[in-house]
TrEMBL record:
Protein name: ABC transporter ATP-binding protein
Ranges for domain ABC transporter: 8-241
SUPFAM superfamilies: P-loop containing nucleoside triphosphate hydrolases
Family: Belongs to the ABC transporter superfamily.
Record carries keyword Nucleotide-binding: yes
Domain of life: Bacteria
InterPro entries documented for this protein: AAA+_ATPase, ABC_transporter-like_ATP-bd, ABC_transporter-like_CS, ABC_transpr_LolD-like, MacB-like_ATP-bd, P-loop_NTPase
SMART domains (UniProt xref): AAA
Length: 243
């Protein structure tokens, strides 16, 4: 792993999008480190660059300038096969809308990325059972998503992301559609999984319930990182445990 446990890094990244005759700057010289075992929140108004950072770190898009580094090695999403393999093996995704396959059971949804990766059936069964136990859904393995609550579906989505044992989990507004009690449960689970499994969580969010529980908060405005916010209580607690 790279220095200081950095899983994903952006260095001098610039990204623009063309809308008709107009060129819109999405990111303007961004440097960012995402570290193993932490929850890092990206905040900012719509159009500030959060989704662009998620796409770059998820190896879905590539910058116009600068570098994207995974475990210290430069990667390029334009190299489609290489980036697809890296994304399959090292990155998990969690979305606001869950993105579960409705005709599959909970276990089948969690198993699907392992099936695509060609993992043998016996290993898949073992890892699916382990992932469902981690998120407290072992007894729901045979249920379909529409039989679950929103919080349970989000936990299935997390199990599906974590079953690959990724270095990085990218989450886009993971609590936006959840009530306060359920959101708190999901947040606690995310913190536990990050700190116990050592995965880095990169989270785009407008939800203050979530940012209060993250280890670091990065604020964006007009494609730039604005001055750092004060350390959150979660970050201070995490540092005390690590000390």
């Amino acid at each position: 792993m790279s220095a200081a446990g950095t899983v994903m890094a952006l260095r001098g990244v610039r990204k623009t999008y063309r809308l008709g005759a107009h060129v819109v700057p999405a990111l303007q010289g961004v440097d960012l480190d995402v570290r193993a075992g932490e929850l890092l929140a990206l905040t900012g108004p719509s159009g500030s660059g959060k989704s662009t950072i998620l796409n770059l770190c998820g190896l879905i898009d590539s910058p116009d300038e600068g570098q994207v580094l995974l475990h210290g090695q430069a990667v390029d999403a334009r190299q489609v096969l290489a980036s697809t393999l890296l994304r399959r093996d090292t990155i998990g995704f969690v979305f606001q809308s869950f993105n579960l396959v409705p005709v599959m059971t909970v276990a089948e949804n969690v198993d699907y990325p392992l099936f695509l990766a060609g993992v043998p059936a016996a290993q898949r069964r073992e890892r699916v059972a382990e992932a469902l136990a981690q998120v407290g859904l072992s007894e729901h393995a045979a249920h379909r998503p529409d039989a679950l609550s929103g919080g349970q579906r989000q936990r299935v989505a997390m199990a599906r992301a974590l079953v690959k044992r990724p270095s990085l989990v990218i989450a886009d507004e993971p609590t936006a559609s959840l009530d306060s009690h359920t959101a708190e449960q999901v947040l606690g689970l995310m913190r536990s999984l990050a700190h116990e499994a050592g995965a880095a969580f990169l989270i785009a969010t407008h939800d203050e319930r979530l940012t209060r529980r993250c280890d670091r908060v990065i604020s964006l405005l007009d494609g730039r990182i604005v001055p750092a916010t004060a350390a959150t209580p979660a970050a201070l607690a995490h540092e005390e445990v690590a000390a």
